[in-house]
Amino acid sequence: MEDDGNNNNIPKDKPYPKLSKASTGYLEIEHFKNADLHTGYFCYNCTYFIKEGNHCAIVEDNGPDVNGKESGIIAPYGLCTLWDPNEQETR
Ligand code: SF4
């Protein structure tokens, strides 16, 4: 394609910056580690949760959560204010 100097393509080589845990209200509740994660506001049944490696599509793994805790992962038993139900996981 010819470059006419008016190229409005959005660059795809740069990953979109994720949000910090603290700004999303993220926290982990140790007591719910062994709970049925299909029920309730858990990362496990959120549309943004990435099960392989415990990540979130929109929230960073690192940095302190609202309690100042740094786990380095997005835990299945974690949750944040952006929770969105994954219809395939919620019961
Ligand atoms: S609840 Fe928040 S941190 Fe957890 S997977 Fe969903 S968007 Fe990510």
Description:
- The chain is built from one helix and four strands, in the order H-E-E-E-E.
- With 91 residues, the chain is largely without helices or strands.
- It has one domain (18-91).
- Strand 2 and strand 3 (55-56) form a beta hairpin.
- The structure holds iron/sulfur cluster.
- Iron/sulfur cluster (SF4) binds at residues 24, 26, 43, 46, 48-49, 56, 58-59, 74, 78-80, 82-83.
Which structural traits does this protein have?
binds iron/sulfur cluster, 91 residues, two-stranded antiparallel ribbon
Number of helices: 1
Instruction: Count every beta strand, where a strand is a DSSP E run of 2 or more residues.
Output: 4
**Helix-strand sequence:** HEEEE
Output mean pLDDT.
89
What fraction of the residues are assigned to beta strands by DSSP? 5-15%
User: How would you classify the helix and strand content by structural class?
Assistant: little secondary structure
Main sheet properties: 2 strands, antiparallel
Radius of gyration: 17 Å
Low-confidence stretches: none
The percent of residues in helical segments reads under 10%
Short description:
This protein is largely without helices or strands and 91 residues long. The chain is built from 1 helix and 4 strands; from the N terminus they run αββββ.
Write the topology of this structure.
Layout: H1 21-24, E1 27-28, E2 49-50, E3 55-56, E4 78-79
Antiparallel strand pairs: 1-4, 2-3
Iron/sulfur cluster is lined by residues 24, 26, 43, 46, 48-49, 56, 58-59, 74, 78-80, 82-83.
